[in-house]
Amino acid sequence: MAGLVPAIHVLLCARRKTWMPGTRLGITTLENPPNLDCVGHTMRLRIQHTTTYRYEPAATGVIQILRLTPGSHDGQYVAEWQIDVSTDSRLDMHEDAFGNVTHVMTHGAIEDLTITVGGLIETHDTGGVLRGTDERFPPSLFLRQTSLTSVNPAMENFARELRAESEGDALGFLHSLMTQVSEHMTFDEDPTNSGTSAIEAFGGKRGVCQDYAHIFIACARSGGVPARFVSGHFLRSDGMVNQQAGHAWAEAYVPSLGWVGFDPANCICTTEAHARIAIGLDYLGAAPVRGTRYGGGNETLTVLVKVDQAGRPGQSQWQSQS
User: Fold this and answer.
1) What are the C-alpha distances in Å from 96 to residues 24, 40, 110, 136?
2) Which CATH number, 3.40.50.720, 3.40.640.10, 3.90.190.20, 2.60.40.2250, labels domain 4-126+287-321?
């Protein structure tokens, strides 16, 4: 038997029920929407995320962990969501330690696999403040460094100077950190990959939103502020509907406010244009798709993401093509 080979991870920003063979998950509609009567504007986001794997020659077995299903909270209501898999596979749903909705997919010998998820999410601008989520751990857990969010002396000094300038104001420190990370980095898809650490990206001064988030998280933790990784989707202001992958940002804990979303790649706090999917200590804990395969040769991965505002002119054509 061939050895166990890691499957390709979905690279961000370049970058409930059990589903048995022969059946399809229907659209999920939540009966009790959360409180959206907050501040700011409301938006209805139509999202589709398609991941296609091809194995040459065929893999003898595949196991994939999917974190592709959003949850509802104040500021985000999942009106519709569904998962479609191109082959008869077993898809078991559960929640991971952080409360992310997770599906484990298993399949035997296979050459091609396409996973499509999508639906409608109603979002509301809460000024970046997150409320109504199921918090399973104290904020202090998110001070824990990982291999992707460790700091070197240069990053420690970077965070220390910003912390000193903030004079004890945690929110001020985080806003300054977001701005400085954004200015320090140049968005570039080529130099980094899903395994690039914050130290490597900070040193290279180039990367994608995953790298921006890792640097922000690493420096926030170095400055004594709990921070975590968020995977999701983002409605671009330039009107570009088709995207190469999902989006990534960070959340940091401010005692007077709770968790607050910071998007250093766009240098903004999260708005109604952000759809939150999963959280983790770093990318590995919130990756849309991770897994392993047995056997097989070359593995190729194609990702297509569409994010649009429902009701926007041309939306009916967008849906008919998806």
Assistant:
1) 22, 31, 27, 10
2) 2.60.40.2250
d(CA 211, CA 190): 12
- CATH code of 139-285, in short, is 3.10.620.30
Identify whether the C-beta of residue 169 lies closer than 8 Å to the C-beta of residue 179: no
State residue 236's pLDDT score: 93
Provide the residue count of the chain.
Answer: 322
Token output for 193: 């990959």
Residue intervals of the chain classified under CATH 3.10.620.30 are: 139-285
Angle between helix axes 153-166 and 170-184 (nearest 10 degrees) is 140
Domain with CATH 2.60.40.2250 in the chain: 4-126+287-321
* pTM across the whole model: 0.85
Do residues 65 and 115 make contact, with C-beta atoms less than 8 angstroms apart? no
Do 285 and 9 touch, CB atoms closer than 8 A? no
pLDDT tens for each residue of 108-163: 888 999 999 999 999 999 999 999 999 999 999 999 999 999 999 999 999 999 99
Q: What number of CA atoms fall less than 13 Å from residue 12's CA on the CB side?
A: 32
Compute and round to an integer the Cα radius of gyration of the chain: 19
User: For 91, how many CA atoms within 13 A lie in the half-sphere containing its CB?
Assistant: 23
